[in-house]
Design goal:
Distance between the termini: 57 Å
Helix content: 55-70%
Order of helices and strands: HHH
Largest sheet: none
Strand content: under 5%
C-alpha cells in the first residue's frame, strides 16, 4: 500500500523535499511552516476526501508535521546547548589567558585560590 502521508514523490530526490526547503529557513520560519501545515491538515480534515479515510489521512499528515516539529525543536535545543557550552569554554579560556598575562606582568604571585577546582578555572 502506498504511503499517503509522505508519498514517494517527496522522497525520490537525493534530498527529501521538506529537508531541502527547511535547509533554507531560519528557526522561526521552520516553526511557522510546521504550524501552518499542522493547522492546514487539521482544519481541512475530512473535507478534501470525504469520510473517515479522509479524516484519517489528513490527521495522519498533521501528525507527520507534529513529529517533524518535535524533531526540529529537539535539534534546535541541542544546537543551542552546544553553542552555549562552546561559548562558555571560550570565555573560560580567555579568563585563564588573562590570568596568565596578569601573572606574567606582576612581580607578586597570584592567590592560589584562583586555580582551585571550586574556582571553575581548573577542571
Amino acid at each position: 500500500m502506498a504511503d499517503k502521508i509522505n508519498p514517494d514523490h517527496y522522497k525520490d530526490n537525493p534530498i527529501e523535499t521538506c529537508d531541502a526547503i527547511f535547509s533554507q529557513l531560519t528557526e522561526a520560519e521552520k516553526i511557522g511552516a510546521l504550524k501552518f501545515n499542522i493547522a492546514k491538515y487539521i482544519f481541512r480534515s475530512g473535507k478534501k476526501v470525504k469520510g473517515l479515510e479522509g479524516y484519517r489521512d489528513d490527521v495522519g499528515k498533521a501528525h507527520w508535521y507534529i513529529e517533524r516539529m518535535l524533531k526540529e525543536l529537539t535539534d534546535m535545543i541541542k544546537i543551542r546547548q552546544a553553542n552555549k557550552q562552546s561559548l562558555l569554554l571560550s570565555l573560560l579560556h580567555c579568563i585563564v589567558l588573562l590570568i596568565d598575562i596578569i601573572a606574567a606582568s606582576s612581580d607578586k604571585p597570584l592567590p592560589t585560590q584562583l586555580f582551585t577546582k571550586s574556582s571553575c578555572l581548573v577542571s
